[in-house]
């Protein structure tokens, strides 16, 4: 599954709950704002999984205050020239 997510860029839905309550399948979703930096999840996924050496893209994403600690750590490592082998995470193959 991780490989499929990486290949397609479909990582799920990202929403913030503004008010607790019940939701039904007939309810709609409304975007109330966009991130001021213009960074989309699609763009971040592209840089994370496909265009890993795009230093300008990495720097742009690192400006996003809401970026998770793990993604921030990965991007900082890339800027420092440290490459992480993702084979085990993607395939479940542990040295086989």
TrEMBL record:
Q: Which residues form the YiiM-like triple helical domain?
A: 39-81
Short name of one Pfam family for this protein? YiiM_3-alpha
Show the InterPro entries listed in the entry. Answer: Benzoxazolinone_Detox_Enz, Pyrv_Knase-like_insert_dom_sf, Tri_helical_YiiM-like
Annotated protein name in UniProt: YiiM-like triple helical domain-containing protein
């Amino acid at each position: 599954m991780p490989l499929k997510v990486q290949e397609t860029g479909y990582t799920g839905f990202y929403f913030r709950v503004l008010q607790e309550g019940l939701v039904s399948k007939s309810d709609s979703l409304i975007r109330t704002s966009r991130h001021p930096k213009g960074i989309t999840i699609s763009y971040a996924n592209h840089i994370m999984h496909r265009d890993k050496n795009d230093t300008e893209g990495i720097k742009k994403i690192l400006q996003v205050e809401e970026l998770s600690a793990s993604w921030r750590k990965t991007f900082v490592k890339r800027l420092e020239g440290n490459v992480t082998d993702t084979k085990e995470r993607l395939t479940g193959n542990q040295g086989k």
